[in-house]
Here is the input.
Amino acid sequence: PVAEVEQLRAACLAASGVLLAAEPSRVVVVGGAGGDEDDKALSIVVGRLLLEQAGCRLPVEHLVIAADSPPADCLRAGGDQVAADEPASRTGLLVMADGSARRSLKAPGYLDARAAPFDAEVQACLESGRLADLAELDPVLAAELLVAGRAAWQVLAGAVEAAGIGNGRSHLHYNGDPFGVWYPVFSWLPAG
Here is the structure.
């Protein structure tokens, strides 16, 4: 449905605009990928396109993280993204991550009653600004629910923890599951 796709796309562009308005020194697009994907992973391609359409003129890098990566590896990868930041430089992350693909009878993975509660847990972390809590997401349950974004969210948790920026300010741009897949669009900035 074109209207739903356009609403989601507009929300993604708005979130990308918030990221760029924060004036980072560089942007890293973080996306999960299956075993046979590389830097052409759909999440990375879409993320780069969104930045281009939002008018990004900054250096853009990417981090492809295997969707089945253990949480510890994801957290470490997130920390590595911000480890070299100087006080005058800041890394902005554009995290491309889907929630469960089992939210309706017509969803790619069919309906699973555990999908909505799992996504609600992620939403609570994103809305409250407690991104470090994403580190606690269960990778086994996420895999069963076809959550493509679990690893990327945990990279984000690792970056926030490593940067020592704690809680932040979150803004919800979009929250929907038009295709039986949960698509959350949030922007998040450190408090202060």
